[in-house]
Every structure is written in C-alpha cells, then in structure tokens.
Amino acid sequence: MLLEDIKQATQNFNNDNCIGRGGFGRVYKGNLQDGDGFKTIVAKRLDSRFGQGEQQFLSELQILLDFKHESVIGLVGFCDENDEKIIIYEYASKGSLDRYLNDASLTWGKRLDICIDVAIALDFLHGGVGKQAKVIHRDIKTANILLNDDWKAKLADFGLSLVSPLVKETDYVIDHVCGTTGYLDPLYRKSGFLTIESDIYSFGVVLFEILCGRSTFEIQKHEGHYLPEFIEKSFKEGKHGEVVFEQIREQIVPKSLITFQEVAYKCLHLDREKRPTTKKVLMQLKKALVFQNMASTMNQFAHLQIPLEDVAKATNNFHHDNIIEHGGVGIAYKGRLLWSGRLMEIAARRFDCKHGDGDLEFLAEISALSDLKHKNLVSIIGFCDEINEKIIVTTYEANGSLGQYLNSLNLTWKQRLRICLGVARALSYLHYDKGRDYAILHCNINSNTILLDDNWEAKLSGFEFSIKQSVNDKDQVCPCEHTGTLGCVDPAIEKMGGVTHKSDIYSFGVFLFETLCGRKAVIQNEADRSLAQMAKYGYENGPLHDIIDLHLLNQILSPQSLLIYSKVAYSCLKEDRADRPNMHYIMAKLEKALELQLRGENIVRLFFLF
After folding, report:
1. Which phi and psi (to 5°) does residue 67 adopt?
2. What is the pLDDT of residues 333-371, one digit of tens each?
3. In sequence order, what are the residues at sequence separation of 6 or more whose Cβ sits closer than 8 angstroms to the Cβ of residue 511?
4. Kind and range of the H or E element at 469?
5. Which of 64, 153, 454, 495 has the most CB atoms around its CB within 10 Å?
C-alpha cells in the first residue's frame, strides 16, 4: 500500500490517532479509502530503533498471509517505502482484552467465549490444520488479544513469532529471549529453549488474568510477584475461590470453575511435558462453558422431563430382569410407561455416575435427539434429571441391537443390506441436512449402537459422544475426549488431534465389514487383531471370501452386488481422510448393491417357477 494513502488515513500519524505503543513502535487507528467509502484500519508503524527490523517485518507478514483464520487478526496490507515499515490490520473496535479484565459487564460466559476463541487460534497455529508448519507465537498476553463489536477475540501481534515444520520435534534454541515478563515460560527464560509449550504457559497466565480480573502486572505491584507465583501460593493455601474476580464470582457454576481452574493450572506446570496440548485446553474450556450454560440449556427441554417416580415404576424399580443392555455410559432397561395418556414400551438408559459425572454425555444425547427427527434414528420420549439420577427414555426397539445378530443365520443378506442402507441414510441426515446450519458427528458408530425395530428397520442410537459442528466448519478437526468403540475408531484421530465427519465414515466402514463378515470389530483369539485390518488385507490381497460368513456368502446372488458393497466398505477405511467417500456416495452405492441383490433373487425365484 502507498505510504501517502496510509498517512492520509491516519492524518499523518497524528498522536490523537495513536491507540497503542510498545517495543515495536506505535499503532494508529485510521480510515482508509476503500472504493467509494472508507474502511477503518489499524496501522502498526515499526521503529527500527526499538529492535524491529526487516526480519520481524517479513516474518509477521508471512505468518498473516499463510495462517488466515477467523480467530487470528486479519491482514489488510503493508507498506515498505522510504524506510517506513507499516503493517495494516483489520480494526477490532473494542480494542485489547487487558482493558476489560476488571470490567464487571464482561460476564463469565463472555470471558469463556473469549478464552475459547484464543484457544482455537492457538490450536490452529500449533497444529497447522492442513498446513505443513506450526507457529509459536512467543508473546501471548491479554494486550495481544483484540476484541470486535461482538466480543469475538482475535489473536494479534506476530512480530516475535517463529515458524517451524510440523514434523520437527526438536526445541528451538534462542540466543536472545523475547516476550513479556510476567507471561514468559520460566524454562524458556532461563535456558533459551523454546517450544509450543511455552505458548501454553503464557496462555495459562492469560486464563488466570481473565478469571481473576487482574493483570499479571497489577498482581506483581500489589503482591510482590507475578500471577503464576500468586496462583501457586493461593492454591497451596486452598484459596481457589478467593482468586476469582469478585464481580463475577456469584455468576460461576461450580463445575465450570473447577474445570477451568484445573486446565489453567496445568498450563503453568514447570514441567513442559505435563502441560496440556492446545487441543486439550480447548476441549476443557468448551466443557467449562457447557457446565456454565447447562441450567439454561436444560430449560429448553423442560417439556421432555419425566419424573423419576414414573421411570422407576415403568421399569419395575430398575429390576435386573428388565435390563436389555450393559455398557457405554450405563445400563438400559425395558419398561412400560404411561405418558401423555398413552401406555408405551420404552427403553430407559440410566447413566452410571461412577464413570464420571456424565453431565456432558447426558446433555449431548438429549440435545441431539430432541433436535433430530428421522425414521432411522431412535426417538426420544423424555429424560429424568433428579436426585443424582440421569436417565434418557427412548422408544423401545423390539429386536435389540444389531451386534447380537452379526453371526445369526436368521438375519439374511437382504435384511443386512437394508439395515446398512438405513444407517447410511441416518448418517447422511446427520452430516448434510439442508434444513440445518449445523452437522452432527456421531463419534460412536458400531453394531451395538444400531437398534432394530420389530420390522428389522435400523434405528441409530448412542449419541452421548456426539458433537455439533457448524456446516461452515465441516472439514475442521474437532477435539474430542471420547473416540468411540475399540476396533471402530478412526486411526487418523491421534495424528490429526480430533474427529471430522470422515471419522464417522471410517467407523461406518468397519460396521459394513462387521455386517458382511458376521463378526465383531475386534476379533478375539486372533491376537486381538481388528476386523478392519483383516478386511483391508483380504480386499487388497484376496480372496475376500475367506473372511465372509459362509452362510451369507451362499445368499449373495449377485457378484456385482458384493463387489460394489465391499469396494465402498474398503474405501471408508482409507488411511487418508480425504480419500474416504461422503455419505451421499456411500448411500447411492448401497442402494445399487441392494437393487442388484433383489434382481438376483427375482431371477432365482423365476427359475424355480419354470
């Protein structure tokens, strides 16, 4: 951009337009000519006398060009003219976060949203998300977190940042330690060794500043030491609650506070290896927000609440004779419930609080099932959240789960194809429904979460680990704590750090082979070798017939049907997520496989008639 245009925008760098200053120089607000109108911008004017030279200038520009994200400040342009080096950013109208730390109008909910935005930015920078490099910011602090009109946070100021190949595991060695005192990783400050965990430490300081409503500098002024030491001392003395900003203390739900403090405290661990990853931090911050919003969220579903007394009566007081399933997050009971004037057969899943509090899984399932309506999804009747009991009540599916019929001689190949097609339709609806602005990632597809009604129609269940994702982010990786059932889990999760809709595709591919081979995903007595490994080997090296249930093989009356089915099942198991098909494609192929099987059966029927 022309220097003259920037001068005009900032009124020749008028002091009245100066909105910040630091080791790099000064920052100015301005109005830049943009077509027929004006755009408000921020101009960072670097001053070489303060140590920011050509290298830092080019480095920041390169990072902002290569790592564009909604939670990273946007680059408008730059100027390199007449010894002037200026970077032009988008304008964040509310300025930097440090100005609002002790602002009582910044509620705990808003503070959590800001923390999550910054964690998303860091996760993007540290993981690359498709890039072949990672960025270490090196100066995470509240002054470098900018806020727009909607309080959306954007991470800024990459003048000290470093870029490293994703595959490089070695630490950086920096001769001259950079950053801001009070936020610096102690190990980096002492040794000069820098890793992404140094950013995690600084972010931990930011998290506690947001919680305490005080900057690390203010704490140093009054307490004689910076925030990390203050937090360490307070926690050792058991004063966890006293560090919280008094203006927001009453707003915070206890579980939200505990979750937040636990992850923030781990960020400040002196041992880098014990600090959480950005994905873990992000996951815990989202959990803290869910806990904070849980009461208001549950109020949305008040019409679905069923008294505990009614559920207990329906299941004969949860009698062991009524148990229809063990596993997952609890025990499912069959019952007969009088509800809304009707006597109906129900399944009541009683969450087991011994395996964690179950709040998040409970809420995820209620939220998913109450919003989603499809003939191949299990239907919710209601729920109970009373006296430490968490129970979800759904329609009873008479034939139970598919898992118990995998090796059954009575479940024909035609029925299996129809079941697979039903599940494919359910997943297609979850991933791509035109009427919703979000997708649902199921995250637990396996033969036990597929229920069968009295007509052997498939009903997908088990939404306790499901994730809601904006359609605009459908290719983004979602961090997750629970990755599914052994043998059905997408192996790319560990490498990529989370799930996408293609993780459901992998699990669905395992399920397709379970259905074809008549055996579970993990094969006992074969060194616990997974069915996915066997199926891939059989498909690639042949013959696949060796692992297909012989009884089923004799029922497959169209070789082309088997070819189409096995090919699409195999493609779901591709190691690279980009090579896996989407549900529309899978659904079309299964429809064709069923059509060919039915045609084969008709030919055989006609043959015997004549």
Report:
1. -120, 70
2. 999 999 888 999 999 999 986 655 678 889 999 999 998
3. 420, 423, 445, 446, 447, 450, 488, 521
4. strand 467-470
5. 153
Closest CA to 190 of 168, 203, 174: 174
Q: Predicted confidence band at 577 (pLDDT cuts at 50, 70, 90)?
A: very high
The token pair that represents 567 in the structure block = 């090919």
pLDDT per residue as tens digits for the range 30-68: 999 887 788 999 999 987 665 556 778 888 999 999 999
Tokens of 379: 């239907």
Burial label for 54, CB within 10 Å (0-12, 13-18, 19+), is exposed
| Residue 484 near residue 443 (C-beta atoms within 8 A) | yes
The beta strands (E) that lie in 35-136 are given as 37-46, 75-81, 84-90, 95-96, 133-136
φ/ψ (deg, to 5) at 90: -65, 155
Q: Is 175 left (phi over 0), alpha (psi -120 to 50) or beta?
A: alpha
Asked if residues 310 and 339 have their Cβ atoms less than 8 Å apart, the reply is yes
Task: Supply the pLDDT for residue 498.
Answer: 86
- Contact between 89 and 75 under an 8 Å Cβ cutoff? The reply is yes
Helix/strand/coil for 159: coil
> What letter does residue 573 receive in the DSSP assignment?
T
Mean pLDDT for all residues in the chain: 90
Domains and CATH numbers, the chain: 3-90 (3.30.200.20), 95-292 (1.10.510.10), 302-395 (3.30.200.20), 402-609 (1.10.510.10)
Is it the case that residue 583 has pLDDT exceeding 60?
A: yes
Spell out the SS3 assignment of 541-553: HCCHHHHCCHHHH
**pLDDT interval class at 169 (50, 70, 90):** low
Question: pTM (2 decimals)?
Answer: 0.82
In this prediction, what percent of the chain has a pLDDT beyond 90? 70
| Residue 44 assigned to a binding site | yes
Angle CA 382–431–349, to nearest 5: 25
How far from 427 is each of 118, 375, 583, CA to CA, in Å? Answer: 32, 12, 7
Helices (H), 459-520: 492-496, 501-517
Residues carrying an active site annotation: 139
- Retrieve residue 597's tokens: 């099987």
Residues 6+ apart with CB under 8 A from 295: 253
Rounded Cα distance between 528 and 423, Å, is 27
pLDDT tens-digit readout, 518-541: 999 987 665 567 899 999 999 998
Query: Cα(435)–Cα(438) distance, rounded to whole angstroms?
Result: 9
Position 526 scores a pLDDT of 59
User: By the 8 A CB rule, do 136 and 196 touch?
Assistant: yes
Q: Which of 130-134, 289-293, 551-555 has the lowest mean pLDDT?
A: 130-134
